[in-house]
Design brief:
The structure is a homodimer of 381-residue chains. With 381 residues, chain A is an alpha/beta fold. The first copy, chain A, has 3 domains: 73 residues, 434 Repressor (Amino-terminal Domain) (Orthogonal Bundle), CATH 1.10.260; 116 residues, Rossmann fold (3-Layer(aba) Sandwich), CATH 3.40.50.2300; 133 residues, Response regulator (Rossmann fold, 3-Layer(aba) Sandwich). Helix content of chain A is 42%, strand content 13%. Chain A contains 13 helices and 12 strands. In chain A, the strands form 3 sheets. In chain A, strands 2-1-3-4-5-11 form a 6-stranded parallel beta sheet. In chain A, strands 7-6-8-9 form a 4-stranded parallel beta sheet, sandwiched between helices. A two-stranded antiparallel sheet of chain A has the order 10-12. In chain A, α2 packs across α4, α3 packs across α4 and α6 packs across α13. The interface between A and B is large, with 58 and 57 residues. β2 of chain A pairs antiparallel with β2 of chain B, so a sheet runs across the interface. The structure holds a DNA duplex (30 and 30 nucleotides).
Chain lengths: 381, 381
DNA sequence: ATTGCGACCGCAAACGTGTGCAATACGGCG
DNA sequence: CGCCGTATTGCACACGTTTGCGGTCGCAAT
């Protein structure tokens, strides 16, 4: 009864056009509100605001002015409901606190924003179960597309993708069948270039500190390392290939293990810059010097690489650009194109101060100021 | 006419319960679809799926099973439209590629996720105009709340907040009037502790390398530095307080300027770790050593601080925790509570290897292994 | 004067869900 | 046998927007 009365009151308020809504003090004005104000129907308002040629320019201008004055903001959720497109994408990532993910996310967000898309952030914390839940949640939000970086679930994506029917692109993780789209760095070439660089400096006993095994990037970078060894006629020694978890803490332990070997390495090729940072710490803790006693290479070229002491020789990934590319490919996918498939971007070796000639004294002393030299190794191709 | 016929066909298909929808092959099943399958009305399905006690447990179970089998995913956008709450928050940040922002974002995302909220990521690129646009866009998406970290617009928020009528909390930026809610680090205390630490080590000529001036965190940290000087009877020298932009590149230049002074500093208190990283580079480039020739302190305790060489003495912010707190406060605000206002979290000085006793030789040599010592300075309070 | 046409506008339906209320069924009680 | 309370379900509407289609009006052509 009370309810009914409220309903009637609303009806009355709606009838009187000059009357401003008073019932819900803190409601955003709707398209109908400003239609009433402009004394037109709400479809006309809708058309006016999207610059439809179907509406008289004069009334359109008037409507726009009134909408502006009323502080009207169209509801993306209502629009999404009827158009069945939310102009929204999901970004799932192990954690945005990871510098690599942060850079990629930045590129994605920028490209998305340029095209009027908003991006949902979802941390998987490197947990497969959690990652699956995230993708499900994104599907409920009716995102138009999904980008996953450095996935931890891998083979479960295929069925999920089929079920969800949502365009999806992976960055730095790929899926064998050519069903899933992706943008990847040239892991093998990059890792091979780094290792070749060490070999050219005279190193023969070269170690590799990887991520947890089983993920594609890890596998490929290890493979590049092996290729370079093989090409130089150096036998691959399993004891020299150890695993961390992609973060400095684990790398310290892994590197320390290598240094305790009877015949320790004089150079180490690391899975990424975080690992390299940990490796350098372990080396110094044992009283050894970089690069005089052991040379170190990284992968990624994160912002801190050139500010380490010595600055880090590493393989550069154009992370932000890769994020952009992923988003651009996703846009194509969402608009129906199906041709993008998977793109591979070239890696670039950046030689700095953490690598030196084998033997006690630094023969080739690259200036430590963070200057970037073009890759000494062969260009991948 | 044709339209009518299609309408009839749909009606027929809807009547035949056994018939699976064939007209729209790639449409997500709606609540009505599974209502038809379960031979109940769609409100019953809605109630069953949200465990309402109003529905018979047996039919509820049956409905859930059918929904599960059909791969039904409720549409958050439709739900948001009717409930007027999207369970969505916006996070605007200068850039997620910044490690500080990344950590905060991580904490926010986690807390949001725990409570069933999704977060929109919006980079402002430190541009006020862009930041305003972002907030507007978020309002159109009908977010339930907004978190802004390290804002660059400041005074424009008040009117926007009033107009948008969306709960909002700022992290590490605050607004004078007690209208805006915020969570902040104790900038003055932290910066003062760092400076006091340098003074206790015997330094008298202590420089400060800040961010661009005008932002609150910068002002407060500079203020803490001045307070410590004053308390020790050291006169503040304007030539020793210079500005970078919070990133290493600018810090290199700023620090280099300091070192060219007739009477250069023997210690430098930096606005944040990124700045400190740049300062260390500048010091080394001039052939000087850290900390023997000049001591350096940072602020933030980013992940790389303990892996620099030497490891960085800095003021720790519990960044992830601060993100969580911001989100939790926002949750309270969104549920109607209005009591949170602004919280200030304590900063903690972490002494490592980049600070040493004034004079050529390192007197107090903290172990370089990244071990964390409790603050030598007085605890702020 | 009727017809036709183009410009402009409103009607109504739809998107998928939640919810107040009425309706129905059923069992117990007087 | 009638009445009432309770459990369960369906009806109808709402949320704010888009869009196909039909309607009105003014004007030129027949």
């Amino acid at each position: 009864m009370l309810e009914k009365e409220r309903g009637n009151a609303a009806q009355v308020a709606l009838g009187g056009a000059g009357e401003r809504a008073r019932r819900q003090p803190l409601r955003q004005p709707s398209i109908k509100d400003i239609a009433r104000l402009a004394r037109v129907s709400h479809p006309t308002v809708s058309r006016a605001l999207q610059n439809s040629p179907l509406v008289n320019p004069a009334t359109a201008a008037k409507i726009r002015k009134i909408a502006e004055a009323a502080g009207y903001r169209p509801s993306a959720v209502a629009r999404g409901l009827v158009t069945r497109r939310t102009r929204t994408v999901g970004l799932v990532v192990t954690t945005v606190a990871d510098p690599f993910a942060g850079e990629v996310a930045c590129g994605i967000e920028q490209a998305a924003n340029d095209h009027g898309y908003a991006v949902f952030l979802a941390n998987s914390n490197a947990d497969a179960e959690c990652e699956r839940k995230m993708v499900q949640a994104l599907a409920e939000r009716r995102v138009d597309g999904i980008i996953v970086t450095s996935s931890r679930v891998g083979s479960d994506y295929l069925p999920m993708l089929a079920e969800l029917n949502v365009p999806m692109v992976l960055v730095n993780d790929q899926y064998p069948g050519e069903f899933v789209h992706s943008v990847m760095i040239a892991n093998e070439n990059g890792s091979r270039a780094a290792t070749e660089h060490l070999i050219e400096l005279g190193h023969r006993r070269i170690a590799y500190v990887g991520d947890r095994s089983g993920y594609q990037t890890e596998t490929e970078r290890l493979e590049g390392y092996k290729q370079a060894l093989a090409a130089a006629g150096i036998e691959y020694a399993a004891e020299l290939a150890v695993h961390g978890d992609g973060r400095p803490e684990a790398a310290v332990a892994a590197m320390d293990g290598l240094l305790k070997l009877a015949d320790p390495p004089t150079a180490v090729c690391c899975y990424n810059d975080m690992t390299a940072m940990g490796a350098m710490r372990a080396i110094r803790t044992r009283g050894l010097r970089v690069p005089e006693d052991v040379s170190v290479t990284g992968f990624d070229d994160l912002f801190f690489a050139k500010y380490l002491e010595p600055s880090l020789t590493t393989v550069r990934q154009p992370m932000r650009r890769m994020g952009q590319m992923a988003m651009e490919n996703l846009l194509k996918l969402m608009s129906g194109e199906d041709s993008v498939a998977q793109v591979k971007v070239e890696a670039e070796l950046v030689v700095r101060g953490s690598t030196g000639r084998a033997g006690a004294n630094p023969g080739l002393k690259v200036e430590t100021g963070g200057t970037r030299a073009s890759g000494a190794g062969r260009r991948n191709g």
